[in-house]
Amino acid sequence: MTTHKGGCHCGAVQFEIDAPAAIEATRCNCSICDMCGFLHLFVSRNNFRLIKGKDALTTYTFNTGVAQHHFCKHCGIKSFYVPRSHPDGFSVNVHCLVPDTLESIKEMPFDGRNWEQNISELSPLSD
Question: Per-residue pLDDT tens for 59-114?
């Protein structure tokens, strides 16, 4: 496992995650992921640490209200959130990670437009 640093565009929100250096990320085509270009890396709560910016976050929910989409109040970037598919963990936006510790990124497509039929295809949380 490697410690990766990440955060929002303005730096108000900063976090660390423990994940492999070579990662498999999920490219979802659901309405929100497609619009914002979110590239998912699912991590357990034990492998995620919010370093700075809890007070800079605002949360958006829709549909079932299970997913907690956290955005920086200052720059509007969603660098991580609590996904409906993995409510006991986080999905980190790979685009928000500092690239220095990433060996490689393999993108895996996910048909989120048909979420209910395809949820079993999502990768589990990394421990």
Answer: 999 888 889 999 999 999 999 999 988 899 999 999 999 999 999 999 999 988 99
Q: Which candidate, 82, 38, 50, 77, places its Cα nearest to that of 64?
A: 82
**CATH number (domain holding residue 15):** 2.170.150.70
Alpha helices in the chain (DSSP H): 31-36, 115-118
Domain boundaries, position 99? 2-121
Has residue 126 been placed in a domain? no
Segment 6-24, tens digit of pLDDT: 999 999 999 999 999 999 9
The answer to whether 23 touches 112, Cβ cutoff 8 Å, is no
| 3 state SS of 43 | strand
